[in-house]
Each structure stands twice: as C-alpha cells, then as structure tokens.
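Lecture 7 notes: from sequence to structure.
We start with the chain below.
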Amino acid sequence: MNECAFGTKDPIYIQYHDEVWGQPMYDSHDLFKLLALESQHAGLSWLTILKKKESYEKAFHDFDPEVVSKMTSEDIDELMLFPNIVHHRKKLEAIVNQAQGYLKIEKEHGSFSDFLWSYVNHKPIDFKYNHSSERITIDDRAKQLSKDLKKYGFKFLGPVTVFSFLEAAGLYNAHLQSCPNNPNNN
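Predicted structure tokens for the same chain:
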C-alpha cells in the first residue's frame, strides 16, 4: 500500500496516482477537463468521479470548451438521464459555466494554462512532504484562485476543491518525498 496514494488499495485510484496525479500538466484543455471533474466531486470521493470519468467525457463532448459553452438547459435535462454521471443539475450546469469562463480567460490571458500557472510563478511548488500527516488541504493561493475563477463564472470550485486541483494538476507537488512518482525523483 502506497502511503502517498492516500493509503488506498483501489487499483483505479492507484493507477491515477501513479500516472496522473501531481504530474505537471500544461495543456489548457487537459487542465479544463481536470478542473471540471474536480468540481463534480464536491461532497463526494474523488474515486467516485474517477470511475465515472469516461461517461463525463462522453456527456460533455470530451470537455471541448467551445461545444460545452453552448450547451442549453435542454441539454442538461438530457444529462440528468445520462448513464454513469452524478445527476446533480447545479453541478452539471457548473461545467457549462466553467466552459464559458474558460473561453473568457483564454481571450483575456491568451491561455488558460498560463492563467493558472501564473498563480505559482509558472513553476510547481514543492511541499516536500515526508509523511501524509503533513499534508494540508487549503492555502491562500487556492483561496485567491477560487475567488478569481468565480469572477469568470466558475462554480463548485471552493478553495479546498481548487487546492485539490492544484495538487492533481501538478502545480503543487504534494507527493511524499519518498514516493517513486514524485516528479523530483524522475
């Protein structure tokens, strides 16, 4: 059992930890997809959303912001019956809002990736954790990014969820120092 992978034994979560979580992500589309998925797990386990990831990709046109931004109330009605996603109307509507916000950020800042990475001066912040008990779940940077995203219409992205996203997307290196998947050990 890998302590860095939050002590889980679930193979889906372990694969996610080993191959995705905490590896610096720079592609704007991939960052948008991850942020949208993070917003869906508010109040739920991340594993629940991971198991539904492919269904969300189908439901939201592989998270193409141009397409998602134009989804209507009728589209959301259909998604309320879509198999294997969380049927929470406000969360589903939030992804549409996020796509619209993504397009505004792209227009104003040139790139969603550059916008996000500017919060860490374009370099991952390494927490240098030695034990999982040292991990934190919120900081001032996540609070500010959450607040700034809300200005662009993003919803279901409070500071704790944004902090989780920053870890998952590799803007924060929250791997334990001993973890073989720590980007500093590769």
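Points to note: The two ends are 20 Å apart (CA to CA). The first strand starts at residue 125 and ends at 126.
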